Amino acid sequence: xxxxxxxxxxxxxxxxxxxxxxxxxxxxxxxxxxxxxxxxxxxxxxxxxxxxxxxxxxxxxxxxxxxxxxxxxxxxxxxxxxxxxxxxxxxxxxxxxxxxxxxxxxxxxxxxxxxxxxxxxxxxxxxxxxxxxxxxxxxxxxxxxxxxxxxxxxxxxxxxxxxxxxxxxxxxxxxxxxxxxxxxxxxxxxxxxxxxxxxxxxxxxxxxxxxxxxxxxxxxxxxxxxxxxxxxxxxxxxxxxxxxxxxxxxxxxxxxxxxxxxxxxxxxxxxxxxxxxxxxxxxxxxxxxxxxxxxxxxxxxxxxxxxxxxxxxxxxxxxxxxxxxxxxxxxxxxxxxxxxxxxxxxxxxxxxxxxxxxxxxxxxxxxxxxxxxxxxxxxxxxxxxxxxxxxxxxxxxxxxxxxxxxxxxxxxxxxxxxxxxxxxxxxxxxxxxxxxxxxxxxxxxxxxxxxxxxxxxxxxxxxxxxxxxxxxxxxxxxxxxxxxxxxxxxxxxxxxxxxxxxxxxxxxxxxxxxxxxxxxxxxxxxxxxxxxxxxxxxxxxxxxxxxxxxxxxxxxxxxxxxxx
Length: 564
Known about the structure:
The chain is mostly helical. Helix content is 81%, strand content 0%.
């Protein structure tokens, strides 16, 4: 039986290696572009954390270790909660709704071993963001603490155990849901997310007491700040163990404590893994049978809450087009692997923007700092949006697959199908990005004209990104593939990502040039600033109109000629 699990892992490894080699050989341009872009993004995050630790050395040298300790503990605490939620969703889908699970259940393999095989898949899907975003933080911390090479070995060991613990907890809850709550899984998930949201609101409410019109770093303020974050320092939490272990590993005399906290994490992971193996062996097959059988007892509701919301948001569309948009929304919601990525990335940005006033800037009342911080937030939001329009909007036409003829035979024009995809993408982009940019600017108390300027830039970016993604999805469809990740990995997806990033950078660079010259460099006066601001607004508006107009014309022209 041990060899059967080894065969599964060996098959998965060879499958991933072959697919990666095939993708690299067939599309070297995409591999180079994605690798360079990922490296640049990783280095940018690393530089940010490196400078942040340098800031602590410069301004709060006396208690910089305490601040670092609380910061790392809060980082691991928040990330652990997000990983638990992500693993519940991904693992539940992988265990009970995956075609591979159907096949594995027919093989002479025990339920416990199938469960652990799928668990590793869940860890890989849910934890890659931690490896990408957390590694620059931990490496910057090691450099800041002048840690030896042993620190980086400990860093890898602690990170591996830490990302495993939330996966085990999420898998435990997914087994419980499948076995005892097969018909109430959505209610359980909504309740869990609601609890997290309520906890976040309570945390933000507590932190709001630290806000002021001007930051004043005093011992009293710091004591209040640390008291608000004391929950992340609970000795019973794995986030505390990881933080203490990394701090000890960075010290030459802290090897003993590092070993203790690592063994503490490892023992908890092994114990939970043993419990999960017993639980999966006892309940996984029964839960799998209940979930698969309960799907057919669901009653069809011709009018749902989503339909009412669609009538409000998309009321300007014809009924037939509104049904196409509702279908796309439901298709997105039914794939938790997709929308959990949106939730995690934009949720992190939202939490950061809401608490941005609690971060001690030098003087938040100066327009230079307001402009710099709000502009950086705008860049982070729009670049993230560019990656997600490529990931979710570009495959929309291809995901219709062999069923595209059904939409093509509907009593609607071909160009209306294109417009429905464009409206769906544009509405989603605006609903996600505009509130984040508004919250960021409002929290920073930027002047009204700067707030309106950033909202206008965001709207132009949403318009251009949506039109680019939908048009290139029509130009380079892949009707034979059902996996969005594989659809995006082709030439069309690579081209969409490159053009989207170039478009975002052009809008932001040109649109922000007057403010940079005026607030940061001080090279122009008030009159020149107003004139240059007007000229740049006209230029970026023309860029957006030309990009959107040409994309829409090319997309409609292509979809009219598309063979069904």
